[in-house]
Each structure stands twice: as C-alpha cells, then as structure tokens.
Amino acid sequence: MKKRILSLLLAVSIACSMLVVPANAAASNAAVQTAVTLGGLTSEQASALSTALTRGQLAKLLVAFSAYRESAATQGNTGTLFTDVDSGNEYAPYIRIAVQQGWLSGYTDGSFRPDNGVTLEETCTAALKLLGYDVTTLSGSFPAAQLNKAGSLGLRAGLSAVQGQGLTLEDAAVLFYNALTASTAENQTYAATLGFAVTDGRIDLSSVLLSSVEGPFVADGTTQLPFVPAAVYRNDTAATDAAPNAYDVYYYSASARTVWIYSRKAAGRIFTFEIKGDAQKAKDFIDNLELFSLLANVADVKSLVIHPATTTHSQCTEEELLDQGIKPNTIRLSIGTENIDDIIQDLDEAFKAVQ
C-alpha cells in the first residue's frame, strides 16, 4: 500500500498539464494529439497520418470538434441512413449527426459514399458550416469563395494542399485544430463555444475533458481498463500499447476513450508536500533520505530535496512565506531518472524513520 501511495505522490503534478497543447497548427503533433483526444482519430490512425481523408472520416472529425462529440456514442441503432451506410458502418453515428446539422450531405442517388476521398475545398466548406457560416452568401463562387474565406479565418494555416487536392488525415487534423482558434459567424472564438480556453497561445482542453478524467491510479501489473482505448499516450507521446506496467501511473477518460500512462521514471516532476509535524520533523525527514540530494536545483537528472523555508526562501518573512504557500513543514521534491523502486524505497524509509 505504501508503494502505491508514494507512486501517487509522484503523479500529482502530471494532471495539471497533460491536456494542454500549443495553439500552433504548424506543429501538427499538437493538432493530431487534439484530434485523438477528442475522438476524431484513433491511435492507429495517428500512426498512419498520410492515409487519405474519406467522407466517413470527415464526418467523424466534424462531430469530434463539435458540441456533439459525446452524442455519437449514444446514437444507438442508426438504421439505414443511405444506401451505402447501414447501422453497422463505423461512421454511421457521425454521418447521421453531420448530415442532420447540415455540415455534410448525401448524393441524389441516395448514397453517401463514405469511402470517397475529400478535397481541400470540400473540407473547408464543411469546416465553415461547422463554424456557423452560410456558404451560399460568401462573395464569389465555389470553390474560390470557400477557400478564400477559410484562408482569411486561418483554417488553411500550416497546410500545403491546393484546390482540387485530396487531404490526408494529418491535413484534416491541422485544419480542424485551426478551427478552434477561428472566429465563428457570431464573431466568437470557436474553442470558447465548446467550453475550451485559449490562453497565452495554448489551447486548454482540460476545462471540459478533465471533468471526465479519472485518476491518478497506480497499476499493479494486472490492471485492465474498463474500456478499449481509441487513444493512448505514454509519457506524453502517442502510443498503441494500452497495458500499464506495474507501478505505472495512469489516468483515463471513458467518454473520450483515452488513457494517459506515465512510466516508472518521471524525471523532472516537481511537487511539494507538508510532512506531519514541525520544521524539525521536516529536517529529520530530509536527513534520512539517502538517494535524494539536498540541492535547490529543479528538473535535474538526480532526485533532489529541499526545505524551502530555511534555504531558497530563507530571506522571506513569515507572512511572505505563507503568501507563497510555504510552511515550516513544507518539503519540495524533484524526481530524477533513478529507478522508481529505489526512489520509493528511499522515501518509504525516511517516512518510517520520523514516525
């Protein structure tokens, strides 16, 4: 039990940053991670980004980047939507929503053609409708009017595709990621209408997604997730293996079908805690650590410990210390690259020594 508690301590600082990504569409990794997190792409698709975008996949991305992203899972049996899209089609729920909202439409012969490729202008048109624009009122004719409007809104930033060219999954992820910071027809930032925030050039998905994130948990080697993940992140990098190892720390969102796993080494993670007792108890705890070095550095490859009240903040008054959340029994740890079992054992023995 003590190991599990100490492993959880090492994970405290992870949750605050795991769902914040740069608002720079040129960095397509951020766009792809967002698309996966929102359920628009699977982990497998994130590993094959040069795959051509299809109409079915376009419908899924439209829904994922909309207020209806959680509705698709509750659609149930959709029946036969089009002659080539029955209830068994993986894209059926998304196609139904996209068509109902007027973002996409079928063909006059009653088909939808979900496997057909999608061009730049077709994707831009759908994205403009997602943002609430009436594309029939744009100045000019199709496709120039739609492409020009998309360009003015920044939807095409970071894309090299031109008129008539089919898009890839990566292209589509970038375009819809750009849509988050674009202005809607009502002159609002689209991300804000979804409950997201854009602060200092970073799109913060946590305001919505963290409400559905559960954790942190510490895996015991036989851990099984309560769902099959569509997206897996291991140490902040997209992965396909969703099985946590013993003492891995993990979080998950069942609604987003996403799991975040942090491995046995968490170098650079910094957190503070207050030991039960006074300043002397804090100093005794630090004195009993062997693996941790008493240094004021942070984010080092070595595990470090410091007593802020008597070192880094020793010139502060008692009032100033309290204003900064520092008490006489506050201890700060910076986790290095040592084996997690060694780190846990060192902390465990220090805690026992001061009990």
Give the key terms:
single chain; 355 residues; alpha+beta; 5-stranded mixed β-sheet; 4-stranded mixed β-sheet; 13 helices; 12 strands; 32% helix; elongated; disordered N terminus
Structural overview:
This protein is an alpha+beta fold and 355 residues long. Helices cover 32% and strands 13% of the residues. The chain has a 5-stranded mixed sheet with strand order 4-7-8-5-6. A 4-stranded mixed sheet has the order 9-12-11-10. A 3-stranded antiparallel sheet has the order 1-3-2, covered by helices on one side. The protein is elongated, with a radius of gyration of 25 Å.
Secondary-structure blueprint:
Blueprint: H1 2-11, E1 20-22, H2 28-37, H3 43-46, H4 55-64, H5 92-100, H6 120-130, H7 144-152, H8 169-180, H9 190-193, E2 197-199, E3 202-204, H10 206-209, E4 213-218, E5 231-234, E6 237-239, E7 249-253, E8 258-262, E9 270-274, H11 279-287, E10 293-294, E11 304-306, H12 318-323, E12 330-334, H13 340-353
Parallel strand pairs: 5-8, 10-11
Antiparallel strand pairs: 1-3, 2-3, 4-7, 5-6, 7-8, 9-12, 11-12
Uncertain regions: pLDDT < 50 for 5+ in a row?
1-5, 8-27
Overall radius of gyration: 25 Å
The secondary-structure class comes to: alpha+beta
Global outline: elongated
Percent of residues in beta strands?
Answer: 5-15%
Cα-to-Cα separation, first versus last residue: 17 Å
Main β-sheet: number of strands, strand sense, barrel status? 5 strands, mixed
Count of helical segments?
13
SSE topology string: HEHHHHHHHHEEHEEEEEEHEEHEH
The residue fraction in helices comes out at 25-40%
Mean pLDDT rating: 82
| Secondary structure tally: strands | 12
Which strands sit side by side, in order, in the main sheet? 4-7-8-5-6
